[in-house]
Amino acid sequence: MLAKRITRQDLETLLLHDRAEVREAAVAYWPEVTDSRSRRLLLRRLDDPAWQVRVRTIQRLAPQKASEEVLKALVGALSDPHPHVRQEAVIALGDLPCSDIAARLQACVLHDEDLWVRVRAVEQLVHRRERGLGLFLLQAFKGAPIPLQLSIVQALGTIEDRPAICALETFRSSVGPEVAEAIDEVVHRHLQTVGPTFEKAKVLV
Hints:
The structure is a single chain. The protein is mostly helical. The longest helix has 18 residues, at 177-194. Helix 2 packs parallel to helix 4 (51-61). It is elongated, with a radius of gyration of 21 Å. It has helices at residues 8-14, 20-28, 36-44, 51-61, 68-77, 83-93, 99-111, 115-128, 133-141, 146-159, 162-169, 177-194, 196-204. 35% of the residues are buried.
């Protein structure tokens, strides 16, 4: 006997199911969002009581973030009470070429209550490589938890911001051994790349 093919109407019904895992599956299997009604039905799931459903909804809506309605909802998800939802919103918004989004990601790095949301925000800022990022990361480094400091050190090594890497070395004596080792590695790698000019720059910092 052939299994019944799940229709769009079936999925709409399942979006309202009592069990969270069923609603999450309905969002996961939702067809490509090509019309405003479909978009609105998914947007309502961002208010779902289950964080897993809200995460899945962001994943399905992310390709539609050019829509002003979706963009506004994703920005709103940065304030979601659950950190996994905020992480997903950070990832979804990370590649948008909008200065306002960059500012919101920076706010996540500095102020979010969850460490891993802050780390994800650093990762997304690195992908953007906007002007002044090195200076911002240095400011965020001071007094940050160790995992965030490690993420920032790695980020500075990735963007190869010479003045920022020079300045980073001045923090070496005030951090733990794990972070100090990471700083040494980034400085050494950068020194191999730029040679004597880096040593000269260190004197000027």
